[in-house]
Amino acid sequence: MPTFHHLVRHMKTYQTKHRMLYVISFMILFWAMFDGILMFILPLLIEDLGFSESTMGIIIGSSSVAGMIFDFMLCRLLKKVNFRRLYLAMLILSAMYILTLTYAHTIWLFLLAMAIWGLYYDLLNWSNFDFVGRHLPSAEHSSGFGVLRVFVSLAYMLSPLLAGMLIEEHVGYKPFIMAWILLFISILFYLLLLIVHKRESKKKEFISNDVEKKISLTQEFRLWKKVGNIILPVLVLTFVLNTIDGFFWLIGPLIAESLGTLGKFGGLFMVAYTLPPLLVGWLAGTMTNKLGKKRTAFISLLTGSLLMTLFFLFRNQPIILILVNFCASFCVSLAWPAINGVYADYISEAPQIEKEIETLEDSSTNLGYVVGPILAGFASEHLGHIETLALLGISSAIIAMILLKVTPRKIKLNVIK
Questions:
Q1: pLDDT of 328 strictly over 90
Q2: What CATH number does the domain containing 297 carry?
Q3: Is residue 142 part of a domain?
Q4: Opening angle at CA 243, ends 242 and 244, nearest 5
Q5: pLDDT above 70 for 205
């Protein structure tokens, strides 16, 4: 078990050897705080306008429908993946998103905002996978994603508290002003990234995964199917993890607002969900080295899902409910950097199908964010918020047990000669 000394040594190692990783991490930190504030207030904005929770789920789920369509377009249109250009496009779309959301008073404007949201989230995933897969050695893929996940988790931990303090009787304008400030800081770190990349590229040769291949759309679909069949268990796990996340980000803010005994600190429910990745991200490399990346992810999901089933028992005890939420999230959080490390391994093993792997991963992510909010909205409207999360725990535990049983220890991508 790593001590604080090991953590400090790990940070010093990355700081001296992987400066770009840290610049990107700080850029994403402020960007994710921007995104987290808007994610927190989104269900409240929709609720204030009188829409039902089922409609809310459909609106939020539509973001990932746009993302899925964009996945296929991006895979076909991009000749060469470049994480710097993708990050830039993400930041531009983020500015468009907050502008649209500010004036969203009809379902059509909300749907437009959700489409933009789906696009820039896809760009973030593509950028991160491209950077880690190309610029970090295979042995550091899990720990690299673990570092990124720590900064993302810190942002998503702080944003519900910050949003809760800015929101009064209604959402108001204060959360939007704070979101603009955070996005501006993120843009400053992007400019720093360009400077650091220019300097680093002169010092060392980066891993190049660019492989020129020209295939027809029909061949592309066949390739997606072939790769998808090989890595299906990993795609299923990605879908489940993002479905869980979709459930929590729709129901969580509503639960937080309903915890009246905690006042403005009802946001602690979402803090308990978003804090654990900040703690476990540093441990991801050690855990996966001992258990293997896929096995770590499956066992983590199973344990966290079983803990989620306890929500039903403590629905009237806010403090215990928050503690159970923290423990469940702690276990599930280990699965994220582990499974992202698996994808980065695949990209290193088969760089000629990098875009196809990223497309399939993003499609699984988007499908989870389509199914998650829609099911969450429908179930919570008929069963209740806490009961819905407990049922989610039962379902995901069953899937985790099946994946543990059927997934081979080694999956090789021998699809391109």
A1: yes
A2: 1.20.1250.20
A3: yes
A4: 90
A5: no
Span 12-33, pLDDT tens digits: 665 556 788 889 999 999 999 9
Report yes or no: 30 and 185 within 8 Å, Cβ to Cβ.
yes
Cβ atoms 361, 343 nearer than 8 A: yes
User: Rounded distance, CA 97 to CA 186, Å?
Assistant: 15
* Domain residue limits at 53: 16-202+216-406
- Asked whether residue 97 is assigned to any structural domain, the reply reads yes
How many distinct structural domains can be found in the chain? 1
For residue 206, give Cα distances in angstroms to 18, 198, 202, 210. Answer: 12, 12, 10, 11
302 Cβ contact list (under 8 Å, min separation 6): 397, 400, 401, 404
| Contact predicate 314/321, CB 8 Å | yes
Task: For residue 100, give both structure tokens.
Answer: 């649209």
How far is residue 291's CA from residue 317's CA, in Å, rounded to a whole number? 36
Length of the chain: 417
Q: Which of 77-91, 110-124, 201-215 has the lowest mean pLDDT?
A: 201-215
Quickly count: other Cβ atoms within 10 Å of residue 202's Cβ.
Answer: 7
187 contacts 91 by C-beta, under 8 angstroms: yes
Q: Find out whether 394 and 309 touch, Cβ atoms under 8 Å.
A: yes
How far is CA 361 from each of CA 72, 91, 145, 155, rounded to the nearest angstrom? 12, 21, 15, 23
Reply yes or no on whether the pLDDT at 5 is more than 70: no
In a domain, 5, yes or no: no
Residue 370 lies in a domain: yes
Provide the 8-state DSSP code for 266.
Answer: G
143: amino acid identity, one letter = S
